[in-house]
């Protein structure tokens, strides 16, 4: 049975702070960027968890992103910055996007396996 037309295929996006309070602007920015990432790869991720925390040794900001794209596909990214939580988030998001891009390319790759390479190993 087909799903109703008004049901979206969006996954869950959780933005939280670990040992720190998050402002609404940072929460909205992280949710929007994670939603864009989800729409771009794998037709929407199932779950995205963004966690902000104080950086190493209490200085600056850290950000961890975990994306559950499909069955058995998990991608993690971490970013830190001394002064700006947005920059820490951006760094972590770039790392996750790179992993998603590479995985999607590998799954889409339709070239035959190089037999000579297999024979050498």
TrEMBL record:
Region (Disordered) residue spans: 102-121
Superkingdom of origin organism: Bacteria
Protein name in the entry: HPF/RaiA family ribosome-associated protein
